[in-house]
Queue: 2 jobs
Job 1
Amino acid sequence: MQTQGLGLKRFFPESHILLPLLSLRVTAPASPTDSPDPVVEAFLQHLGAGRGLSEYTVRNYRQAILEFADWRRSTSRPDRDWTGLERDEFRQYLRQLARQGLGPSSIRVRFSALRTLHRYLLREGLIKPWPVRGLALPRRPKMLPRFLTEEQAVQLLNAPMAEWKRLSSAAASSQTQPQAQTQSQEPPDAVPFFRDAAMLEILYSSGLRISEACGVTVGDLDAAGRRVRVLGKGRKERWVPIGEPALAAIRAYAERIGRPESPDVPLIPSGGEPFDPLSPRVFQRRLKLYLAAAGLDPALTPHKLRHSFATHLLNRGADLRGVQEMLGHARLASTEVYTHLTLDRLKRVYEDAHPRAKESGEG
């Protein structure tokens, strides 16, 4: 039996690997807090280093697999034996998740993690096939992506600088008022506002995921060619266009913090020296401030700018295949969901404009 990938021989001594498949057992202390499961850790390392998945995907897969192991332990099953799983176990776990009130999407995410682990262990030759394939999972409800109108997108893109100017004006005004009437305010630090304006611009201009935008370096930007290189899911590289407003916002921020032009420096660092990468979580928290300032739903996420990017392109006649390439979708079906949004818009235009779109009401 061959072991590939990340050298699972250090977890499975050669004498164990040569045992018959059904006799293979991974033994460890009963409590998951005593030591990590070496099989799971090797799998997660493969996802991050081998397949280039984001830390958030790896974290979610870890959580899903540990939840399943905890459930097995609660039913007096061996939580670290991945070789003898039966179909009834998956059915029972599926019912347990439903009893917990999890929706179809949450259940499917958990089983997606288990299926990926299954494929990995099969490829490593460590298990027999699990009976998880073909298991009927609850259907995910069809939900169209939420997106901003073009006017709302402009309002959001303008929000960081507008908010900085508002706070600066309020601080200046407080300095001129008698102290008995108002408390003096310190002027706001301009750096986060310039940074966030640049980040919003690149997200909307190029349709990037927030993790992709935070990972772009100075060397990835071809300003003369107005394009940027992105490392997407599965470490797949793609070049996407970037607009002049985004380039101007990036230049303004770089000048503000004195960012060096070294290729490995983040294009939009979190601040000045040492020019560390911006954390997606930090930006998501800041985004709520700008959404509120623009009169938009503070619950919207950075990904909605990606949805808006795709929808606005298609609304203006962009080719579906071209949008697929810019988004980095492996399958055209992932991009086609946006056509439902544009078709709804076209239908409304037709009904409002075509003389024979509606019944005239004449007998």
Job 2
Amino acid sequence: MLATKTAIELSRRMMLAVVLPAMAAGLAHAQNGGKIDGEAGRRNDASPDAQDYPSHPVTFVVPFAPAGGTDILARLLADKLEQAFGKPFIVENRPGAGTVLATNFVAKSTPDGTTMMMAVSSLAIDATLYKTLPYDPGKDLALAARVASVPFVLVVDPSLPVKSVADLIKLAKQRPLSYGSGGIGSFHHLAAALFASSTGIKMTHVPYRGTVPALNDLMGGYIQLVFSDLGPALPLINAGKLHALAVTTIRHVTELPDVPPLADSGVADFDLAAWQGVVVPAQTPPPILDKLNTALNSILAMTDVRDRLSDLGMTPVGQGSVVELQHFLQSDILRWRKVVQDAGLAGAE
């Protein structure tokens, strides 16, 4: 009888010796958020994915047709990302409905870092411009990097009898003027609308399918002014085919050192620049988002990349953490909300 009790007690102790350490380890694992003790053995659900990212080709969506500035920029970054990660980054053009079709595709893609998009300022503008969108720009997408700032320039036909912004405002109060844009709700449109509301003038908006057709009609005398992105306007300004009155940024633009900012030309606090950035689905794991952010910021610090962006009329950015970039996107949505509302375009699309 004593031998039996002794055997049972030994068996119980052996079982406890095995089970209790396992239970303790499991409890510690749960309390540590799925991590294994120690820096060398740290593990969580997202880390292996981040370490291996990207494990297969990445689709880099451009919301415009090939050969434009955004497309050229995306292809430049895709080449550099391939070099950095050793995996293909395939540029895919998805134009249509402004940028809504492409943005919806990316917002609803699997959030694993294998689908990204070259986004522009319309991401923030569309939040107010459209009555409804199939996605929420501030909640369904995350900025992985701010790539570039794009200054705009106010240009007129040289035959127009104005030499300054003050002359233009005076003329606009004397006779009807029309301005061209790259389309309803485009940055060109809203910059002009803000200029009109800030100066108390009224002008007629003539939307085009892009900047170049608007500039062509400006040179043809069909319209009187355009707020143009710097890239397509600069060679025409240098050739004397267009006259630049002011830039939209609060600082001078290197390529046009003699052209004053609007803020220094009687339009107080006017400071607008479009932006280009890389976005991914909002639920992309933070370690992957951080990895992309670090890689893109490093790429944008390269001399050859910065030189190419300058050639495209863009100012390289490449700064900001993921958290800072999300704050920027939210604040930009709010800023453009007021501009769109003041222009009477809220819910126009």
